[in-house]
Amino acid sequence: MAIVVYSIPTVADVLAGIWKGLQTPVTAQEYEALSWEAQYAVVGAYRKRCARRGQHMAIQDELRRGVRRIDFLAGKTRFAGVLEGRIWEFFVE
User: Fold this and answer.
1) Longest dimension (CA), the chain
2) Model-level pTM?
3) Are 69 and 23 in contact (CB under 8 A)?
4) How far apart are alpha carbons 30 and 38 in whole angstroms?
5) Distance from C-alpha of 3 to C-alpha of 22, rounded to nearest angstrom
6) At what angle do helices 56-65 and 36-51 cross, to 10 degrees?
7) Cα gap 55→57, rounded to integer Å
8) CB–CB of 26/73 below 8 Å?
9) Beta bridge pairs of residue 79
10) One-character DSSP codes across 6-44
11) Taking Cα atoms as reference points, which of 16, 36, 38 lies closest to residue 88?
């Protein structure tokens, strides 16, 4: 007899997944795949994020870590939803 357990993600799972995904460093290939306009927006978001750290050492530490996926949002801060599938997709506005 086999027991099948279906795991339904909780809100905490979704939020943790979003946070973890947005903290992921961007690869050179991901960045280079962007248009120059998108690259400009990402760099602006990256610089703003680093500047918000406040203290000089914290800013320098953040700058060393580089661009992360959160910078790809470039000011888009509204969560628009989740699409369930083999791979979960998150949408922002």
Assistant:
1) 61
2) 0.70
3) yes
4) 11
5) 35
6) 150
7) 6
8) no
9) 92
10) PPPPPHHHHHHHHHHHHTSBPPHHHHHTS-HHHHHHHHH
11) 16
* Among 72, 69, 49, 44, residue whose Cα is nearest residue 61: 49
Q: What is the dihedral of CA 32, 35, 91, 25, to 10 degrees?
A: 20
Q: pLDDT tens-digit profile of 28-84?
A: 999 999 999 999 999 999 888 888 877 777 777 777 788 999 999 988 877 777 666
d(CA 51, CA 71): 13
Long-range CB pairs of 19-22 (<8 Å, 24+ gap) are: 21/69, 21/90, 22/68, 22/69, 22/70, 22/73
Do 40 and 31 form a contact (C-beta atoms < 8 A)?
no
